Amino acid sequence: MIALVDCNNFYVSCERVFDPRLRGKPVAVLSNNDGCVIARSQEIKDLGVPMGIPAFQIDQRLKRQCVLLSSNYTLYGDMSRRVVETLNTFCPQVEVYSIDESFLDFEGFASDRLIGHCVELRRTVQRHTGIPVGVGLASSRTLAKIANHRAKKDPNGHGVCLMEADSIDTQRWLEHLPVAEVWGVAGRSAARLATLGIHTAWQLREADPKHVRRHFSVVMERTVRELRGESCLAPEDSDVPRERIMTSRSFGRPTGDLEQLRQAVRAHATRGAEKLRRQGSVARAVQVFLRTNRHRPDQPQHHPSLVVPLPTASDDSLAIVATATQALARMHRQGHQYMKAGVMLLDLQDKATLQHDIFASESADTQRNERLMDTLDAINRKHGRGALSLGKASDNAAWQLKCEHRTPRYTTRWDELPVARL
Questions:
Q1: Residue 32, C-beta contacts closer than 8 angstroms, at least 6 positions apart
Q2: Which of 114, 209, 360, 416 is the 20 to 30 Å CA partner of 179?
Q3: Under 8 Å CB-to-CB from 116, ≥6 apart: which residues?
Q4: Is the pLDDT of residue 243 over 70?
Q5: Residue 187 in this model has a pLDDT that exceeds 80
Q6: Is 335 in contact with 300 (CB distance < 8 Å)?
Q7: What is the layout of strands, in order, in the sheet containing 67-70?
């Protein structure tokens, strides 16, 4: 049996843990640079504020009733880690799917005690972290996703729902579930399925898997089998190494200062190299780009992009940052106000199978830098991203995100610890 544990309104729930005054109020969390709504409490959903709406487009009468907060990813990441640590005490196999979702493998657990076990899991996560969760149980990941959705909607289920693949109850639910709401079925796929007469999750379950595969792919065939209760989506199926890695972000305010742009590019290159090492790849080239504000035709425009090959395929932050900053120096023009910078790592290869140049592989510098990167990653995993970095960013740098309504990072910064008052 597989369980999907999903944190309810996760970003908002994290904020409410440390500010109980937000409970019961309509709360939304905004995207980078306080742009669009990316998380909503149930109260703000009930007011009709849609997901993804730009903050400036929210009706002023509604905005006066709402609390709009800047995204606080440092806090959310640490709270996610705490939730997962608690889940590990209830199940030996926890597969983290996203920042607010994890799959748990309960193979071997007594079925008659599983629901009670998950009810206690919910209580413990709430007690240890303050985060409410829902639990969906089924014999496949796709059904567990659907069960989790039911768990959140059912007021009498104590936040836990078990869906038996062949039960009448499951059939009735799937008969009323639009196929577009099935995990892994995107809007375009749903439209194509409709041309085959498949509109509901039950119709997809009853379709011929081989027929579906001919019209779509092996992934859609697996979805059909998953709806029948067959567990055929392994963890590694969703963990395919990326062919390129890009890190970029719009600035909090425009800048033409070369040193601030260098800091932004260095931060993006460092983050890209971390992702590269995590998936066990090396890059052969680095692309850097800059953007001015296209919506300001009264200002000089400049949108350069430059690809620079690395001397040897590498996952070394030092080499990648050095190459990226060299590219920046070649592209930068005085008199332009840039609004965005980004770094893309290209021509990725599996590090384990790469045939290194014999001289490079025997280089003492290469071996030393690999040990350095291992140490850097270990420290940042233990103490949080950015605990140890290449270079230091200026305080209040223009390229830093705009976050005028960000709450304190309560759990990871000594100077932002919550204060208890009698």
A1: 71, 249, 250, 401, 402
A2: 114
A3: none
A4: no
A5: no
A6: yes
A7: 37-40, 27-30, 67-70
